[in-house]
From TrEMBL:
Belongs to the SHMT family. Residues 25-126, 159-431 form the Serine hydroxymethyltransferase-like domain. It comes from the Bacteria. It comes from Actinacidiphila polyblastidii. Pathway: Amino-acid biosynthesis; glycine biosynthesis; glycine from L-serine: step 1/1; One-carbon metabolism; tetrahydrofolate interconversion. Catalyzes the reversible interconversion of serine and glycine with tetrahydrofolate (THF) serving as the one-carbon carrier. This reaction serves as the major source of one-carbon groups required for the biosynthesis of purines, thymidylate, methionine, and other important biomolecules. Also exhibits THF-independent aldolase activity toward beta-hydroxyamino acids, producing glycine and aldehydes, via a retro-aldol mechanism. One of its GO terms (molecular function) is glycine hydroxymethyltransferase activity. This is Serine hydroxymethyltransferase. The lineage of its organism: Bacteria, Bacillati, Actinomycetota, Actinomycetes, Kitasatosporales. The gene is glyA.
């Protein structure tokens, strides 16, 4: 039995024992878990929104907190018996406030979309609901007359939001119509300058002056440059909008003090949302930071918008945020950007076309139309060669959001694994080799498919072997031996 074998490290014993216990109930689940770590060890993971959480973070999620209901907030729950949940939720919020210098932190959101919904409804609560209650002279919505309630519901539905366009690098929760944010708000998008690919603050200001949104959303999931949040706040203030920043992608760079001054959203935004599992390297989940004026509204997130909190995940957020507060996390965050720049330079020198011509953050967006491919074809071809990426729209993408013309790659995960700038250049070479050897497959009805590709199996196998060789020098979870 592995757990009694003293030759194994504490981490190995912990994970081996967990798998043994699971295998005793449903072996296929244990096998899938073991297979997942094997896949992750073998693949070059370049998905910009993924990372490798520490063993401490992973282990914190598998415990008795999972069994507890804890609706409400610390010290004010709708359920009894929450003293231990209170401890970990308060710890997570304290660490979050300390790491990000925020006045208030709400660590209950289960995901990024949940965090954004909490933020939207907090602003609606503060700026639409509270004035309506005051005007009617009542304390809560149940006390409104039917007529006033109907008016308030209509007012909720008539608010405006200005967010970054999806194909400019924004996120679907920033007002994209298929998402609830696009259905809740009268939404308008700001894009990027067609020549430079950069945010055009003058155009944004003009649009805000004309549209007068309640909320301006800044933040991105596929924009390879920095956003000046001081300017964004100036624009928001000028038009009476609340500035919300979704820093899900770059929270690790903020925590690690790579993004400071005008590029740190926390001092400039009224409300900041994030996931905790991307560059921040925590458990899968979300979080909201805000100024004091919004705190009471944000704290109503559950049950206003969210189901019961996940105490085991809040505990893991506390552990991850404790890690993010350590000096070595700043070294890690800087290395993410150094690696991203090296990857971009490696691609550029091999002739690849990059959106904005490079990067200042953790991600690079390759316009694969210069290889004669759609994003979908490039993504699948790279996977054939053991390189995991995801396709993404480029600005004014002629192939739409499904096939796309881009491949988004990011360095948070491989930087966690220990790879550096020399390896990034090598990886750029592997990507260029695969894309250069791939072509669009002929379509059944003539012409070429947008979905299917042709890649010589020998090239795919050679690159996969090179990737495996590269990764063998950087073992993933070296303390975890499952053999
Ligand atoms: N799906 C995430 C990403 O990959 O960027 C954002 O929600």
């Amino acid at each position: 039995m592995a757990a009694q074998d003293t030759a194994y490290s504490t981490e190995s014993i912990a994970f081996r024992s967990a798998l043994d216990v699971i295998r005793g109930v449903e072996p296929r689940v244990a096998d899938a878990i073991a297979s997942e770590i094997a896949d992750q060890r073998e693949m070059l993971k370049l998905i910009a929104s993924e990372n490798y959480a520490s063993p401490a973070v992973l282990l914190t999620m598998g415990n008795w907190f999972s069994d507890k209901y804890a609706e409400g907030i610390v010290g004010r729950r709708f359920y009894a018996g929450c003293r231990n949940v209170d401890t970990v939720e308060a710890l997570a919020a304290e660490h979050a406030k300390s790491v990000f210098g925020a006045a208030h932190a709400y660590v209950q959101p289960h995901s990024g979309i949940d965090a954004n919904l909490v933020a939207f409804w907090s602003v609606l609560s503060q700026r639409v609901e509270s004035p309506a209650l005051a005007k009617a002279g009542v304390r809560q919505v149940n006390d409104l007359s039917e007529q006033d309630w109907a008016q308030l519901r209509a007012d909720f539905g008539n608010q405006r939001m200005l967010g970054m366009a999806l194909d400019a690098g924004g996120h679907l929760t920033h007002g994209f119509r298929p998402n609830i944010s696009g259905k809740m708000f009268d939404q308008r998008s700001y894009g990027t300058d067609p020549q430079t690919g950069l945010v055009d603050y003058d155009a944004l200001r003009e649009s805000a002056r004309e549209f007068r949104p309640l909320i301006i959303v800044a933040g991105y999931s596929a924009y390879p440059r920095l956003v000046n949040f001081r300017i964004m706040r100036e624009i928001a203030d000028e038009v009476g909008a609340t500035l919300m920043v979704d820093m899900a992608h770059f929270a690790g760079l903020v925590a690690g003090k790579v993004l400071t001054g005008d590029f740190d959203p926390v001092p400039h935004a009224n409300i900041v949302t994030t996931t905790t599992h991307k560059s921040l390297r925590g458990p899968r989940g979300g979080m909201v930071l805000c100024d004091d004026s919004l705190a009471e509204h944000v704290d109503r997130g559950c049950p206003m918008v969210l189901g019961g909190p996940l105490p085991h995940v809040m505990a893991a957020k506390a552990v991850a945020l404790a890690e993010a507060g350590r000096p070595e996390f700043a070294t890690y965050a800087q290395a993410i950007v150094d690696n991203s720049r090296a990857l971009a330079e490696g691609l550029l020198k091999r002739g690849a076309k990059l959106v904005t011509g490079g990067t200042d953050n953790h991600l690079v967006l390759i316009d694969v139309s210069s290889y004669g491919l759609t994003g979908r074809q490039a993504e699948t071809a790279l996977l054939d060669a053991g390189i995991v990426t995801n396709r993404n729209s480029v600005p004014q993408d002629p192939n739409g959001a499904w096939y796309t013309s881009g491949i988004r790659i990011g360095t948070p995960a491989l930087t966690t694994r220990g790879l550096g700038t020399a390896e990034m250049d090598e990886i750029a070479g592997l990507i260029d080799t695969v894309l250069g050897a791939t072509s669009a497959a002929p379509a059944a009805k003539g012409g070429f498919s947008k979905a299917h590709h042709v890649l010589d199996e020998a090239v795919a196998a050679r690159v996969a072997a090179q990737a495996a060789e590269l990764l063998s020098g950087f073992p993933l979870y070296p303390g975890v031996d499952l053999t």
